[in-house]
Amino acid sequence: MNCDNLKITVFGDSIGKGIVTDSGKLEVLSKNAVSLFERELGVKVDNRSIYGQSLKRIYERGLIDTYLNNVDTSARNVVVIELGGNDADFNWREVASNPKYDHDSKTSLKEFTAYYGEIIKKLKDNGVRVIACTIAPIDSERFFNNVIGTLTDKERVLEFFKGDFNTIHRHQETFNNEILKNSYKYDVDVIDLRQKFLISNEFEHLMCLDGIHPNECGHTQIYSAVGEFLANNSLIA
């Protein structure tokens, strides 16, 4: 495979960064999906993934413009977008303080859709190939008990959810759908991380106890999804 002049940049969140949490603290997994890709194919990745990163923050801080202002236009430039999970998240303390209020997520669905489309278009207009990643699914029960429950009164949050914590997963799915819609609209390839997790019969074994970060086995699944994508797409000729 010819990797000459290939420049891959990842804009991602803690999953793209390779962060795991089962030790009780944030740690970067040495065998995360991006590092596995680099080692296997001998390609250096400019991994700009950050814990807590969101599409909204990328957009508002002009990080795509910064990237384009410094890009090597003679290279084969590829941007991978692995974002959306933090956009779909809520301020749980605010939710618990007033569970009867119709709270929106940190990024509204309307904002997310608009930002995603604009970012894709801007990159493509500048000759950059864009690859979108679907959102790795959340384990609603673990997230509810082990994250929300440590931040605030989870029973009041459950009141906001009308008694069904699986609303967390369904809400995240609406953001994932917008990724797919924008990818189809702008003719962007997709690495379907979400399906790779959902079709597994051992989903719980792929996730950290917080229900949102894939563990080492989960990162192997992500790398497998990347491998399947490369087998069917000419990213590397």
SSE pattern, N- to C-terminal: EHEEHEHHEHHEHHHEHH
Can you identify the CATH superfamily? Answer: SGNH hydrolase
| Shape, per Cα inertia axes | globular
Structural class based on helices, strands and sheet pairing: alpha/beta
- Average pLDDT metric: 95
- Strand adjacency order, main sheet: 4-1-5-6-7
Q: What would you note in describing this structure?
A:
With about 240 residues, the chain is of the alpha/beta class. It has one domain: SGNH hydrolase (Rossmann fold, 3-Layer(aba) Sandwich), CATH 3.40.50. Helix content is about 45%, strand content about 10%. It has eleven helices and seven strands. The strands form two sheets. A five-stranded parallel beta sheet has the order 4-1-5-6-7, sandwiched between helices. Helix 2 crosses helix 11 and helix 6 packs parallel to helix 9 (about 165-185). It starts with 5 loop residues before the first strand and ends in a 5-residue tail after the last helix. The mean pLDDT is about 95.
Primary descriptors:
237 residues; alpha/beta; Rossmann fold; 5-stranded parallel sheet; 7 strands; 12% strand
Quick structural gist:
Helices cover 46% and strands 12% of the residues. The strands form 2 sheets. It has a 5-stranded parallel sheet, sandwiched between helices. It has a two-stranded antiparallel ribbon with strand order 2-3.
Give a topology summary:
Layout: E1 6-12, H1 14-17, E2 19-20, E3 27-28, H2 33-41, E4 45-47, H3 55-60, H4 63-69, E5 76-82, H5 92-97, H6 109-125, E6 129-133, H7 140-151, H8 154-160, H9 167-185, E7 189-191, H10 193-198, H11 216-232
Parallel strand pairs: 1-4, 1-5, 5-6, 6-7
Antiparallel strand pairs: 2-3
